[in-house]
């Protein structure tokens, strides 16, 4: 049926039901809108749920016990978080480097332009600040940058690299994805999750860009592999601790205002990080407190800002990290190798002179311990700063991006698309497929405890209001609507919230059905009011999947609804997002769910990649590895012989230039881009 004709018939049906006394949509909407839960409850439940799933740094008795734990953690994070899927092949590729022109720097150093491959086809532009007079071995420092649109040309970063070179240090200034020369919309950080959907770690390009930068530095004939530093601000601070904790070639790390514990982030919304900072499953193996402690016994300078206007302010971010790391450094007898600095002038989100001088001081103490004349005060180099144009590095056409990589990966997915036809083979495929789907979405079998909080009747329709406690963690608000004696039950959920589905409820009531309208995790009354998608990313970081939470809640409500009269229910979803969750719920819950009616469902999961969407818009749609195993036809087949009925309805919005949709913005470091 054509969409226009369907709409006209649906409108006529609603009008007929209204005149026949089935209840006007406006009256039904009023019933659906009644508040059931407190405004802040969804966020409070999410905070508690996430916080308790973040592991603490364990107490250990001796250095050997800690080193075994640290080595196992490094191995697990690298294998199970960073190098998943196609990234294993990327890791094994040879680092390719192309050296380009050399330009004059300033007194005592030159700047050599280069590019290197983070992974096949993805080139990173970089600048090597090389002292002119080198003999013997020299320290090396990898300088990474954060969410700054100027990228490697940022003034504070240039000055840092210049000062390092003037002190006889090899300083590599690397570009970061979506910054500077790589500021391509297809590299927006929330698009890394397109790779996740394909079963390949979106974190891998970030990590490889860092680790191969170290390869370049350490391949220099004058590089001293015993004096290897990494430093960066904000997102660069995240890169610094992530690389340095996992790559033991690093001997000095100086993350500046770059991270906090996941436990801290659950409570301080300013710290909730972008996709790369909250990668799938990291907290199953390590919190950032672990990564901090894993720097022991190497050198670590933690720099934070007193009045940080972005994120990771010193007063809340720093103490938990010190509490975690100090006992481990003490255990090694290297307390002096852990130091921290709190910046007060300017005290905002910065890597300006005061913070840079603390880095120089640490380099002097740790890399030049016998040189009492080492100068930690900054050398004035403002007149040596160069423009973007001068520092640009030639890149090949068609440089790979998150989006281009995902478009290539998704072409051959799912891996095993064929659905068996024989009855026995199909049954075996379904059983194995449900087990696989349950594993991918991290489904839970929530028990529902129902609390009836009131009822009212309008226009012959009775609304009963419920708080449905799904497991110990989640409260799902529900409105049960009936008129007369219902013959069957429908569980309904809508992307725009239950109140938006009044016309659909009127139609269902007119069919003689009981309707239980719910708002699952992340939608309607269950929507987290502040920085919502960042909570969804953090849920994936602690090992869950937002899609799995939604599907598990719908399945749990269906089981509860079935208990009312013993009959399986129909799940009706309005909108592509909850249609996906309902499709997954139907595939997994074969007893309580008799059928599903999906309005505006995706024809293929590949649509979110083809439309170039990001996790900041539709976080649950990027469930790790889902497309690798299943697309919509396979998910529908898992529900057979129960019916999956597709209807016209709301569609996914197209991404904006910056990868955001209305009402969706990035973390505070997105504002940092604007400020700079």
Structure description:
- The chain is α/β, with parallel strands linked by helices and 676 residues long.
- The strands form two sheets. A nine-stranded mixed β-sheet has the order 1-2-3-5-4-6-7-8-9, with helices on both faces.
- Helix 20 (576-588) packs across helix 23 (632-639).
- 54% of the residues are buried.
Fold blueprint:
Blueprint: H1 3-19, H2 25-33, H3 41-51, H4 63-82, H5 87-92, E1 97-106, E2 109-119, E3 122-131, E4 138-144, H6 155-166, E5 170-174, H7 193-197, H8 204-218, E6 223-233, H9 235-246, E7 252-256, H10 262-267, H11 288-293, E8 299-305, H12 314-331, E9 338-343, H13 353-367, H14 388-391, H15 402-410, H16 423-441, E10 448-458, E11 461-470, E12 474-482, E13 488-494, H17 502-510, E14 513-518, H18 532-541, H19 546-565, E15 569-574, H20 576-588, E16 593-599, H21 607-610, H22 626-629, H23 632-639, E17 643-647, H24 668-675
Parallel strand pairs: 4-5, 4-6, 6-7, 7-8, 8-9, 13-14, 13-15, 15-16, 16-17
Antiparallel strand pairs: 1-2, 2-3, 3-5, 10-11, 11-12, 12-14
Helix pairs in contact: 1-17, 2-17, 3-18, 19-20, 20-23
Strand content: 15-25%
> Helix count?
24
Number of strands: 17
Q: Quick check: average pLDDT?
A: 93
Compose a concise summary of this entry:
With 676 residues, this protein is an alpha/beta fold.
Search tags:
single chain; 676 residues; alpha/beta; 9-stranded mixed beta sheet; 8-stranded mixed beta sheet; 24 helices; 17 strands; disordered N terminus; disordered C terminus
